[in-house]
Amino acid sequence: MSQPIEVTLRALAVLVAFLVLPLLVGQTEHKVMAHMQGRLGPMYAGGFHGWAQLVADGVKFVQKEDITPAAADRWVFRVAPAVALVPYLVALAAIPLSPHLVAAAAPGSAVFVLAVTAVGILGTLMAGWASANKYSLLGAMRAAAQLLSYELPMVLAVASVCLAAGSLSLTGIAGAWSPWWLLWQLPGAVVFLVSAVAELQRPPFDMPVADSEIVFGAYTEYTGLRFAFFLLSEYAGIVVMSLLFAVLYLGGWHGAFSDVLGWLWTLLKGFAVAVLVIWLRVAWPRLREDQLQRLAWLVLVPLALGQLALTGLWVVTTA
Amino acid sequence: MTALDVAFAAAGVVASASGLLAVTTRHVVHAALWLVVCLGSVAGCYLVLGAEFVALVQLLVYVGAVVVLVLFALMLTRAPIGPNPDISTSPLHRVLAAFLAAGVTTLVAAALLPLAGPARRRAGTATGDLASALFGTWVWPFEILSVLLLLALVAALAVSRMADRQGPDAAQTLAESAGDPVGKPLAEMAGRPTAQSAGELPAQPAGERA
Amino acid sequence: MTQASRPSSRGAVPGILKGLATTAKTLVRPTHTAEYPDVPPHLPPRSRGVIALLEENCTSCMLCARECPDWCIYIDSHKETIPAAAPGGRERQRNVLDRFAIDFSLCMYCGICIEVCPFDALHWSPEFEYSELDIRDLLHEKGRLGQWMPTVPPPPALDERSADPAEIAATTRPARGASKLVTGERATAGARAERARPTRSVGDDSPSGAAGATPGEAAAAEAQARPTPPPEGEDQK
Ligand code: SF4
Ligand code: SF4
User: Fold this and answer.
1) Which residues in chain A are contacts of B199 at CB distance < 8 A?
2) Which domains are assigned to chain C?
3) What is the ipTM of this complex?
4) Which residues does B39 contact at the CB level (< 8 Å), separation at least 6?
5) Chain A: nearest CA to C43, how far in angstroms?
6) Band of pLDDT at residue C180, cut at 50, 70 and 90
7) CB proximity C35 to A under 8 Å
8) Ligand 2 contact via C187 beta carbon (within 6 Å)
9) Please, which of A31, A98, B18, C137 could form a disulfide with B38 given CB 3.0 to 4.6 Å?
10) What count of Cα atoms within 13 Å lies in the side-chain half-sphere of residue C146?
């Protein structure tokens, strides 16, 4: 009878992580971005260096009016934020922090995470179409085009790692990791990181929400809590992708005292990747739509295929 | 009746209900969204039956890519909000369709029901077994299928090249075509696979170089 | 150096790395943020924060109100009759300021009113923290405008060896038509100079020299209001 309790506890832990980690990344973004631009960032909320800024933002979002445009497709419009948010929640559950610390161990968790995050696109598409706003529609189409193009190199890059480890589960992959992978899987890692940033629609791949062109893309018509959900899904996406990168390419819990502090290593590595993602946002300008497609199809896909061939060759020759 | 049976039944009910809604709704985009639900619950069925990998690929390919592509094409062309009276059929069609559906259902049921014997142990399919079956026993159908897809890609490329020979480059960006007012839906829909194949064809040699 | 290296840089990669390097460098440098409410901003003394009114100097001449592009200065005044000081003397009139208000919700801080005031009754003060919850409270009446006066910084010192200010120069220059020198004319010029710079005593033989010896602008204004000056005019007669 302890199984239901355990399941509940695990679900709760994932929920807590899902609510805390994105806020942590968001606050880091506030601060890192501010200092990279010679500013201080939030300083007041909560007292010490504005640590509670995002909590205050959340409270503000709750208070705002929830508006559904008159011409909108009511149900699709309302459900879209959930469709965007839930996949990341589910994906987070499958990412292991250490060999034993994983909310939902699945044999094919690498494919699982990819499959589930791919569903998140639907939320953006639904939001863009249902808003009855031309900017939203444009944003949704840009998002769809971008996400479809970057899905392929990402899957190929992950396939290469799975091939190298001989396993489809994240625990197995990180277990088979060795420092030599840092060099061997480097092209794949670069491809994965670039396509992850593109999947998250983060600058420099923020064409779908380019505020100077199409207001806020698919999220233009959203207010209050639903808008906050979209923002949360973006930051949850950063968390998921960063942790995934840490587990796939940086060895997850490998490090000193990995028996005890393995989970900390994973979190730290993931956090470093998240900071990198933030850094890219500050440093680089936005890619144009054609440059975006060009990068995906002419650079990333060949690179990922090359990595896959290399990995395959190595695995076959050494096996 | 185990919990798995219940889960399977639930997924099946959701799948058939959403499938019905997908073909009966008058909202084009709603139909596509119901299709998402339908395909998702079919993935759930696979999962319950122990074919985890198939379920995940179903999710990744069908929900994450194919339906997104369908939605994308719908939005690029004309997908008004609200019911679309154009997608309606005459009563005669409906009666015929009902007969056809009933016939297919009886056929399938007649073929499958005798097979349903006593409850069997669900053997979880290992991904390795799946792979060896796919690339061992079934390798020829698999390869022929991929040739077929390749042919389709090349054909789509050819069609779109012919369609806008005087127009801009076939590798025209999607955003630009999105910015196009209503546009030529067929060319646009053909334009999407073109962008893929245009990228993919030179990709092969480049990949080997890397 | 960047000019020279640009043509040699191949492709986008060097630029991409440069962007990362720049942001990383900025990250470790101190920030430029001024933490305003905690740390008061360093404003130059002649910042245009708010307009202060020195009520004693104002003669209700309405020049400022008329020149204000927004018409946001409101002035009410009435004339008051001052009985003759000496028996048989003439009664005199002067303006009494009843209301002077500036609506800062309309003011665009052009400074024209301050420029045109001939009597130095309006001054810029660098104070700027007078926002209100109700826009109507931005209408500062003369009491409030007067309260800004202590925050007006002293005028900047003249450069060394600069020419005398125009008011002083006017007194030392020989008057026009100096051959037919009229004492009364010189006397009024002297009084004006005293008002502008009351501390510097200008040697003069007019009877108003005694009044000018009292220092301070307020005193000078008072002197103007007191029935003492009339002798000037009577002298002229
Ligand atoms: S500063 Fe300009 S706008 Fe403001 S009261 Fe003076 S003249 Fe009017
Ligand atoms: S402030 Fe100056 S310009 Fe305005 S009425 Fe008074 S004296 Fe005249």
Assistant:
1) 149, 293, 296-298, 301
2) 50-151 (3.30.70.3270), 162-204+216-228 (no CATH)
3) 0.78
4) B58, B59, B62, B63, B67
5) 20
6) low
7) yes
8) no
9) B18
10) 11
